[in-house]
Amino acid sequence: INQVVTKRILEQKAFNxxxxxxxxxxxxxxxxxxxxxxxMDLNMPGISGLEATRQIRxxxxxxxxxxxxxxxxxxxxxxxxxxxxxxxxxxxxxxSTFYQVIYxxxxxxxxx
Length: 112
Hints:
The structure is a single chain. By secondary structure, this protein is mainly alpha-helical. The chain has helices spanning 2-12, 23-32, 49-59, 73-83, 95-111, and strands spanning 38-41, 65-69, 87-90. The chain has a three-stranded parallel sheet, sandwiched between helices. Helix 2 runs parallel beside helix 3 (49-59).
């Protein structure tokens, strides 16, 4: 349900969005296709979002990866950044903040 809701929110701003159901599938997709940004849930079946990010950073050090989590940020902030994630969105999120984080990270990639 969270994936479908997030996809609809992204599509409201004309973003193209693809969903993967687990961390391994996400890593494989990023190896095989071009994406401008990754929204990575921390809790996924198979490998976690943190482990998936570590694997992605081995072959793609620049793609912005944003953590999606319902966990209190302070509890996990250091681990998120050590894994190579660029930013954090805490669920439940309001759409305005959600878009701000996405635009900030896409802009950083373009300007970077």
